[in-house]
Amino acid sequence: MTSLYFLGKSVLTACLYILILRLWMQRVRVNFYTPFTQFIVRITQPVIGPLRKAIPSIGRIDTATWLLLYLFALIKTIFICHYGIINTPIWSSEYLLYALAAIAHAFGYLLFWLLLFRAVLSWVSRGQSNADELLAQLTEPFIAPIRRIVPPIGMIDISFMIFVFILMFLNMFAVDIFGYLWLLL
Question: By C-alpha distance, which of 97, 58, 101, 76 is closest to 10?
């Protein structure tokens, strides 16, 4: 049963990551002609395309994708609470709040991994690949404000470390608020 739980949680988390990436790439207006961005668009378009016909966008807000993201987060929360290692009884109205927490959790972890990949690629490719450009477009809005306050020390840019420290602090703070369920998300 543990293997099925792992599989279900992994699939739902991957769906959250893909939907968050689609919304995030639309928001920062990345280059949509790279293979990775084309993959994200193609894998989500069969579901989001018909959903957009029923649920129109409100201004620049892609409501269909946001609704689908929230629905997957709600399904993941219910799945974890009912089939997780610890059967966590919560009120049905709390699922709505925990779904938002699942989105925040997935966004934080996705941001952490993108920053890590960007740091590793900066040692290898020196900013000359499509992947490095995409990672810079996605993460620079978070790193730039820190870089304005704390400039690089010689050739070492510590803004990544400061931002990861902030992410770790927010993760620990969320554990204080949401308890053990945050660690399961």
Answer: 76
Tokens of residue 54, six digits: 């029923």
87 has pLDDT over 80 = no
Q: Which runs of consecutive H residues, i.e. helices, occur in the chain? A: 2-28, 35-54, 63-83, 92-124, 130-149, 159-178, 180-184
- Is residue 150 classed as helix, strand or coil in its secondary structure? coil
End-to-end CA distance of the chain: 18
The structure tokens 């554990």 sit at 175
- φ and ψ of 85, to 5 deg: -60, -40
Between 47 and 80, the more confident residue is: 47
Neighbouring C-alpha atoms within 13 Å toward the C-beta of 182: 15
Quick: pLDDT tens for 89-128.
566 777 888 888 889 999 999 999 999 888 888 777 766 7
Enumerate residues 6+ apart whose C-beta is below 8 A from 85: 2, 5, 184
Average pLDDT on 75-87 reads 78
CA-angle at 10, arms to 9 and 15, nearest 5°: 100
